[in-house]
Amino acid sequence: MTVMTYRDALNQALREELTRDESVFLMGEEVAEYNGAYKVSRGLLDEFGPKRIVDTPITELGFAGVGVGAAMAGLRPIIEFMTWNFALLALDQVVNAAAKMLYMSNGQYKMPMVFRGPNGAALQLSAQHSQAWESWLAHIPGLKVVAPGTPADAKGLLKAAIRDDNPVVVLEGEMLYNTKGEVDENPDIVIPLGKAELKREGEHCSIITSGKMVLVALQAADQLAKQGVNVDVVDLRTIRPMDVEAIATSVAKTNRAVVVEEGWELCGIGAQVVDYIQRECFDDLDAPVVRVHQADVPMPYAKNLEKLAKPDAAKTVAAVKRVMYLED
Length: 328
Description:
Elements: E1 2-5, H1 6-20, E2 24-28, H2 44-48, E3 53-55, H3 60-72, E4 76-80, H4 91-98, H5 101-104, E5 114-119, H6 134-138, E6 144-146, H7 151-163, E7 168-173, E8 180-183, E9 197-200, E10 205-209, H8 213-225, E11 231-235, E12 238-240, H9 244-254, E13 257-264, H10 269-281, E14 290-294, H11 303-309, H12 313-323
Parallel strand pairs: 2-3, 2-4, 4-5, 5-7, 6-7, 10-11, 10-13, 13-14
Antiparallel strand pairs: 1-8, 6-12, 9-11
Helix pairs in contact: 1-7, 3-4, 8-12, 9-10
């Protein structure tokens, strides 16, 4: 195991898969000469050349469509969006072409392609550059959606996404690129899509989360432990398909649940998790499930208002205390 950043773990996954399979190539704005807006593709142009590490104009819809055509022709494109906020312009290709091609062609065309890039809020990037896209994309049949929260998961899930024969959306946490963690450098190790992981084990409550919010949940778990409350932290890792069994197993043990998500409340991923909990383990619950999410406003630019709008460890601690009837 080697300690590396989330950024370097993604870079290693790309390098290993480009080496393993000559049909894999990377395409996007500034991925080659500039090494990527967040330096995830650092060094790949020198190693694999301009036919496989391809700079594009600022045309999200255009190069996403080129990727769809390449996948139909048997290649395995990886489309990097400089941010998922810009991918709004490319959704016609993601939703209407990539996600539906297998079905509309009666199985004649697989779509082995990956759409990836930073997702969610960073620091004071304001409303148009601070959106969490998981609920938008997970709504679409035909797409798989992953949201890695650690360097090890970033590498393993991206490798699995590249090898998958379906279009996979990889939502990278914009504030996670510099975070560090242990990563297995064995190139044969991938993390299966659709499998959650118990990041921390407890007995009093389950915190169910994904992506950037995994760190928030673990911070909250540390604070709660000091107060004698021990929680399960269930990292979904894949949003679609979701590991319902892992959710139900944890809630059946703890009898209480808090769902932490980066996006807005209405129609959010947390609403789907709550639906699964009430269907699978309603009789196990000792309290209503509580959700922690972004405030129902476009993300403010002002630093103090941005902090108020974001889900954080303090709000998660308060939510756990609420489901345990420990509120002050």
